[in-house]
Task: structure prediction
Amino acid sequence: MSTVHIPFLQTGTLAVGGRLLDDAERSVQSQADRPSSLTRGHRACQGCAEALAARWVMDTAVEAADGRLVVANATGCLEVFSTLYPESAWKPPWIHSLFANAAAVATGIASSLHAQGRDDVRVLAQGGDGGTVDIGLAAVSGMFERNDDVLYVCYDNQGYMNTGVQRSSATPPSARTATTPAVGRQPGAPQGTGKSMVKIAMAHEIPYVASATVADLRDLEAKVRTAMSIHGARYLHVLVPCPLGWGSSSSESISLSRAAVQSGIFPVVEARAGELTDVQRIRERMDVEAYLRPQARFAHLFKPGGEDALNRWRALAEANIRRYDLLGGRP
Amino acid sequence: MTQIRIHGRGGQGVVTAAEMLARAGFLAGHEVQAIPSFGSERTGAPVVAYCRFADVPLRTREPVLEPDVVLVQDPTLLGPAQPFAGVRPGGLVIVNTTEDAPWVREHAGDGEVDATVVTVPATRISLDTVGLPKPSAAMLGAYAGRADHVTLAAVQQVFRDRFPGRVGEANATAAAVAYAHVRGEPDPRIVPSAEVSHA
Amino acid sequence: MSGHDAPPTLGLSTGPATSLSYHTGTWRTERPVYVDLAPPCSLACPSGEDIRSWLGSTQEGEAGFETAWRRIVAANPLPAVMGRICYHPCQAACNRGEVDEEVGINAVERFLGDTALERGWALPVPTASSGRRVLVVGSGPAGLSAAYHLRQRGHDVTVREAAAEPGGMMRYGIPAYRLPRTVLAAEIRRIEATGVRIECGVRVDSLDDAQAEFDAVVLTVGAGVAHHVDIPAGAAAKIVDAIDVLRDVASGNAPLLGRRVAVYGGGNTAMDAARTARRLGASDAVVVYRRTREQMPAHPTELEDAVGEGVRVQWLSTISEVSGPTVTIERMELDESGRPVGTGVFEELDADTVMLAVGQEADLSLLSGVDDVDVRDGVIAVDPGTLMTGRDGVFAAGDASPGSRTATFAIGRGARAAAAVDAWLASRVLPAEPVVREAEASRLNAWYYSDAPKQHRAELEAARRVTGFEEVLAGLDAEHAVFEARRCMSCGSCFECDNCFGMCPDDAIRKLGPGMRYEIDYDYCKGCGICAAECPCGAIDMIPEER
Amino acid sequence: MREVLEGSQAVARTVARCRPGVVCAYPISPQTHIVEALSVMARTGELRDCEYVNVESEFSAMSVSIGASAAGSRAYTATASQGLLYMAEAVYNAAGMGLPIVMTVANRAVGAPINIWNDHSDAMAMRDSGWLQLYAADNQEAADLHVIAFAAAEELGIPAMVCMDGFVLTHATDVLELATQEQIDGFLPPYSPTQVLDIDRPTTIGTMAGPESFTETKYLQHLRFLDAADVVEAWSDRFTEAFGREAGGLAVRYDPDTLDRDRSAPPAGAEDLVVVAMGSVIGTLQEAIAPMRAEGLPVRLVGISAYRPFPREALKAALGESRHIVVIDRALELGSGGVLTGCVGRALAGTGSRIHSVVAGLGGRPILEGSLRDVIARALAGEQRGLEFLDLKTGGVPVPPVGATEVAR
Result:
């Protein structure tokens, strides 16, 4: 993994910082004067991991770009909670146009900057899973295929949370949403593996594709830094628990992300030019239950009749563990 | 005002022919207009294009309904395309064919029309000169040979301008060959030895 | 508003960071609050050391060693000694045991103690004198601790020790392979350097005389007299007290014990006796104990060390008779209440010597004829808060008073007695010890602590250690001591890992700089609780917001 | 220099001379020749300091333009028909954000049935999107309008569509005189955006506006739109001064007798029937009406060049005392009549005018001079009803013969 190795200082690489760290070893988020590109006063729900991930991503990108970063944002929670006129929680130059076009707007910005000879200014586009995996997929794919100089970041909360928690093609099987209610013979979202945006991105053979979570800041920052060191189309997929949509406690957004990784449900990977180059191994293996049970959207899995679906989840985790060798050869 | 209608098939350069004709007309001192009538761009589909020459700027956008001149770039269009439709009395119809005028009248939908029918093996000429079945230059050369709306020199010039180099020259030759053909003059490619000796 | 003079951006664009005008703190139903809780290590430390804090200083490396040592000696003036002999209940309580292995607190303490001796760091010398004179009777851990703490408070302190050298059981009960005499002597000298006067070979016979000479007296006479049990024994039976053997060895008069030695008892003294017997040439040392391993009072590490050196243990056994070289043993079993009862099954054991290690008693001859100082259950009765005996101005601590008979407990009680004496001399009421909240393991988020096993002290080859009285355990070097200190999870106390600061989705926590920790901006904190959930050490409480 | 050029080529060259920073291209007939020509210029270097982006949809074409414009570049794209509707959301968005993008719309019918030929249904569907809509009567104006469009759009902070009839103009070859690079450089101010994504002065563009502020943002947009008429007219006048030929403007006047375009032509009189039309049909009307005038028939022609903002005052001024109007419409408001007719009607509300709506040329149906003369004559004779479909064939949908060309239809 591209994570910076931190010597053992009580917490090592796992915590945000530590008073014993050298400056060079500090995460961006541990710096008292970090950019805080998404700052106080935004209206995200309590415990919103998207708000957290966006600040992490953008702060790192701002640092990597030496402050020269322009951002295009898709419609969605992130846009709505951060920019209700006349207030904006953003510090970098930032534009919101539409739901489906963040990637294309970013291409436009990048093209304009290139035409102006301003290749020193970097462009980041971001959106939720709806704006990326569903309605915005064509624009994202176009941006990838042209290899436009844009880092696209998808904050995946697995549904249309802004509109009241409806299913998206990133919604996992069995999850209860407003359009996949937990009733009937197969409650929740239909079975199937859904759409893997990471694999779709890899299929474009763009220079860099990675997934990350808010459970590992160091990893996320390292990936943003790597992505920013490359020109061309880059994609970062960040899992961001949504307390509202997932029916979890606002304090659990980090721990659920951790459980998603440690259970094998969410593989944290890196790929270059379409080839998988790195995989984050499971550190402490958890059962899928650690991920599923705290979420009300999966409550029906733990009632009579939920066993089949629960076993499918276990199978999914097993499949990921095998496919990505998440245990690194350990039993 | 002189109105010209060109019939052909997609891929034969019908639209190009109309534009080249307009350019040649402009060189010859006319106000000009070329209007293609498009279908979807499919090779082989029947295509019509129009051209107008006038002494004042051309304003109308209606298609040519009563052409003074009709150029038929493909003899297979004689039936279904009704190339003789609306031809003004005393008009000129030039058909790309190795057959003769009576054959054309026989196969055209309206064979009794009051018009001069001229044939020219434009495809053969273009194959001989350009190396491709692109009969436009030959058709325009033939037109220059039978009417004074445009000159051979203007036709040759526009092809040389559009396709600089060998292709332009080949088209210019095609125009000259067709020009000579419809005027009953010797093929300009065959230089009589007598002329050489007299030169 | 007029025409296109109004910018087309009006209503669409806005300045950066203008959201600061919107105070999301009003959304909160719970508020995070930083707390400092008592860690289990300190709560378990009878000496009362602030272990978390001195480990914290040690984590800083070289720059923090002296601070760390000074934080230890604020409670315990004998770190090098205790770093060797303490049975470290702190480690048993350490929350890190639930993550991988407990922090090797004891080893770090020894490192700091040894470092202090090496570098000659001195204990603080009081600048002001109270003019009050206090006598401490006995120079064991309780006495030295009481004397040190009294001296730190400015009193004129004299220690009178009946034995030839100071140290009490540390000098005469604990074998040198566990506690080299040079270390003990050095730490005692350092206490003396603060102005404590130690008079050896001076037995205090009269409490009245002592009180006449001193303003207050602290009795820390220890429990150096062996307890006896009645065992039928033949004339040829060689039965000795373990504590006497240990004292003789410590005094340089090693006795002859024979090739086969039986030790009767299950405490640490029994372990020391058995291991000493091995060092004195016994090929066969058997500990006979009437209960089970789980019930054994000896510290498990002592047992492990003994077993590692070839000592055998005969569980659930009593010695019913000693005749010549043969010891008769009765097998025991536990009744319903867990007490051993005889089974009537006997077996025999060969033993040249039987060492009795069935407990020790205090030598309370000083109190004979003193009727206002109660002795109950063989120890001096004291007020549990002030440690004052029935007689005004006379206090007691250590093994001669109620409580655990361990050096660490003695040090803690000595310090407590010093505080009590100080209060009594000033006619103040000694405040009760404050009630503290424990930082329980359930508060911690252990995920954040990297997997880092305890740095095991390199143990001497078991075969080698039985051949002499060389020190068995080597100390940590600085690098390993720092590493070990860094394994401390700082239970219940912020150690500035930046998790709260970095993980706040609302950017509502401010970092105040090294050592200054953080501040929550309640104007913006929405009370999501991520900071508390992801705080590794459980130093954030979420409390209901009452408006 | 007068030269013979295809309309699309003329537009492409003029656009290139306006020095766009970003050009987005997605193919749809009949705008393809324009972006094809620009792609050649981007490769040959004739179009310098410009990014030519081949996008994956019209939606992205407009979105890339939005990003480019917001980042400080003059942005251009072209589309038609289904493409315009496919980008509709972004079209509205560009206008709402005040980004002065210029887009050529090669007007084409909107399916179903799918039809690639000309009418105005596409642009009319976007009439309330907040864009300027400038209609070209011929290819000379189509080229010239782009210069005016960039100038007016950038002054206003309102994007502009230049609408030119698909195929009829885009693919037609005419004798034209293009504005030269030097002329355009002297005429068109450099792009200086009112808002830009600037790292030195960061701003947030595209916030959400709640009920408390949305009405006012729209009201301001409306006020800007009201100002737009003056701005478009002013730039058109400046163009005429600079280039010596008329282009753009609001309501276009024609000489009563020569039918030549003439801004000094008198308004219509009370006895006149005025034909109001938009786009390339004006040329055909010029030819159709001239002989009628020669016969002494009281017919006048007024063109609409700026459909958005709709030139209410300029139209009323050009109509003068006339209260008898025939509107030739190339788009249909289903169940109602011509789209332009509705706008003219609203502009003339309260004037007591008689307005005939003639819907003509849908889906590429040729508009013939004779048919126009016929409908005008009937209107003069008081025989024309309120709504008429020009050259409507009765008896259902005609089936063309196999292999027929347009001539035989």
